[in-house]
Each structure stands twice: as structure tokens, then as C-alpha cells.
Amino acid sequence: MTTGPENPYGEPQQPPHQPPYPQPAQPYQQQPQPPYGYGYPQPYRQPAPKHPSSTTAMVLGLIAVVGVLSCGGVTLVLAPFAWAIGGRAVKEIDAAPPGTYSGRDEATIGRVTGIIGTVLLILGIIAVIAIIGLVVASDSSSSTTYGDY
To answer: pLDDT tens digits, residue range 33-81?
Structure first.
């Protein structure tokens, strides 16, 4: 007794409830948009404006430190100003809500170069005072007379 039709080669045919061809693909369904995050495109946001003093601090600090090579240390008087302006700008950027100001890197560069320039300025002042002290000390010792000639 056979339950289904067989082909002449002895292999059973597919049961009548399964079609002999593959199922058609499901129609395209739009997937929900994933939230923004890693690997997904971010919406364009306009960059925050730079803090007004950040570039000023950076320029003053760089002029103070780099100017030592060309001006012989005269530009070091700008270093304390770069330090003060850069420090104030960094504090104001950190105190503002996120995204209010950019330019923290420039303000930090101004502050650091201002610190370096101020240290060099203090060392230069100490060196000038020491040289003047040595000149005065050597001049006073050479002007004494040790006898009549």
C-alpha cells in the first residue's frame, strides 16, 4: 500500500502540502531608525563659538616664548598677561554650560606658554640683578688702592 505517488525511479515525491519551489521573499519593510550613537551618522551641529580671549592668550604666550630667540627676551613681558588671560578663559569655558564656548585648547596653550615665559622672565631678572651685583662688587674692589706709588 502506498501513501503517495512515487516517481518511476523509486524516490518519493514531495508531499502535496509543500510547494516544489522556494517561498517568495517578504516585501521590503522599512526598519525603524536606530538612535544616534556609535556607527550611526550624527546630525550636523554648528560648532560652538570660540571664547573671545582664547586666541588672544595663545598669541600672547607664543609671542612671549618664541620672541626670546629673536628679540633677546624683550617679549617675555607679555608672558604674565598670557598666563592671566589664558587662565581666566579656561575658567570661563569650564564654568559655562557645555557647547557654549570652544577654544579651551588655545586658552590652555596660552596659559602654559605664559607660565613658561613668566618663569624665564623671573630667571632673566635674577640673572640681570646678579650680573649688576657682580659688576658693582668687582668695580668697588678694583678701585681701592694698596699704597702710594
So the answer is: 655 556 666 677 788 899 999 999 999 999 999 988 888 888 999 999 9
* 3-state SS, residue 57: helix
Q: For residue 56, give every residue at least 6 positions away whose Cβ sits within 8 Å of its Cβ, in sequence order, or none.
A: 85, 110
Q: Please return the burial class of 115, using the count of CB atoms within 10 Å of its CB with bins 0-12, 13-18 and 19+.
A: middle
Domain spans in the chain, listed from the N-terminal domain onward: 54-139
Residues 6+ apart with CB under 8 A from 83: 61, 110, 111, 114, 115, 117, 118
Cα Rg, the chain, nearest whole Å? 41
Backbone angles phi, psi at 50, to 5 degrees: -70, 150
Dig out the grid coordinates for 58 from the structure.
595663545
Dihedral of alpha carbons 79, 81, 87, 90, sign: negative
| Cα(149)–Cα(140) distance, integer angstroms | 20
Q: Amino acid identity, residue 58?
A: M
d(CA 105, CA 59): 12
CA 92 to chain CA centroid, Å, is: 17
Please give the model's pTM, rounded to 2 decimal places.
Answer: 0.63
